[in-house]
């Protein structure tokens, strides 16, 4: 019963934020940063796609033996993801283009860089898995940058490594299958115990898995 009430409250708060233009930036200016971060974390952590990302995808990666994982994008609501990797042999790294996001990245394993140039910061075939969630059309917007991202990520992934891309229908042009470098350098599907592609109902968020060739 309490879980249903919690979900209803979260939906009630999220609806006006998603449908009233400028409400989010207005509240960000009017409210103290600590309150904005608190509600942001609560709202994001309750999203079905975030629940799947944390409880299924990241836990699967953390449970692999001697896996090296790169998570692209650091925010207050992703800060705790690295804790999933503390009790095993896997290694968790983060990256973000914004220097202000260092505080939310993995301590001692965070790189500030443009994702299109991530291969300048790591050797070839460094990682076993790379996770990009909500990147295309949210920072990596142009066709050229998307192509460069696919190529750069492929260079730092081990052959047979896994690329996981989270995306949705809005805004448009997020589909990784439309990026030629992903189509040519990766094959659809993964050898891990994950769905090759899954649609999370509600936000209509998709997680697509690829294998580096």
Detail the topology: elements first, then pairings:
Blueprint: H1 2-19, H2 23-30, H3 33-45, H4 48-62, E1 68-72, E2 91-96, E3 110-112, E4 127-133, H5 143-156, E5 157-167, H6 180-185, E6 186-188, E7 197-200, E8 205-212
Parallel strand pairs: 1-2, 1-4, 2-3, 4-5
Antiparallel strand pairs: 5-8, 6-8, 7-8
Question: Key features?
Answer:
213 residues; alpha/beta; 8-stranded mixed beta sheet; 8 strands; 35% helix
Structure characterization notes:
The protein is built from 6 helices and 8 strands. By secondary structure, it is an alpha/beta fold. Strands 1, 2, 3, 4, 5, 6, 7 and 8 form an 8-stranded mixed sheet that branches. The longest helix is centred in the first third of the chain and has 18 residues, at 2-19. Residues 36-41 have low confidence and may be disordered.
* Count of extended strands: 8
Radius of gyration of CA atoms, rounded to a whole number: 17 Å
Relative helix content: 25-40%
Mean pLDDT: 86
Coarse morphology:
globular
Which residues form runs of ≥5 with pLDDT under 50?
36-41
- The SS-based structural class is alpha/beta
The largest β sheet comes out as:
8 strands, mixed
**Proportion in β-strands:** 15-25%
- State the end-to-end distance: 48 Å
Count the helices. How many?
6
- List SSEs in N-to-C order: HHHHEEEEHEHEEE
């Amino acid at each position: 019963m309490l879980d249903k009430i919690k979900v209803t409250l979260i939906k009630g708060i999220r609806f006006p934020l998603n449908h009233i233009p400028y409400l989010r930036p207005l509240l960000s200016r009017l409210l103290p940063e600590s309150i904005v971060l608190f509600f942001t974390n609560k709202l994001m952590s309750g999203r079905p796609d975030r629940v799947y990302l944390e409880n299924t995808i990241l836990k699967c990666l953390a449970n692999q033996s001697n896996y090296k994982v790169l998570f692209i994008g650091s925010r207050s609501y992703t800060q705790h993801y690295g804790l999933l990797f503390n009790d095993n042999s896997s290694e968790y790294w983060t990256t973000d283009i914004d220097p202000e996001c260092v505080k939310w990245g993995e301590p001692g394993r965070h790189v500030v860089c443009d994702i299109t140039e991530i291969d300048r910061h790591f050797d070839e075939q460094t990682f076993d898995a790379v996770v990009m969630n909500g990147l295309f059309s949210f920072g990596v917007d142009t066709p050229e940058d998307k192509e460069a991202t696919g190529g750069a990520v492929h260079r730092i992934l081990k052959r047979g490594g896994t690329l996981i891309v989270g995306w949705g229908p809005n805004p448009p042009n997020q589909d990784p299958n439309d990026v030629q470098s992903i189509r040519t350098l990766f094959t659809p599907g993964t050898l891990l115990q994950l769905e090759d592609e899954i649609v999370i109902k509600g936000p209509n968020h998709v997680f697509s898995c690829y294998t580096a060739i």
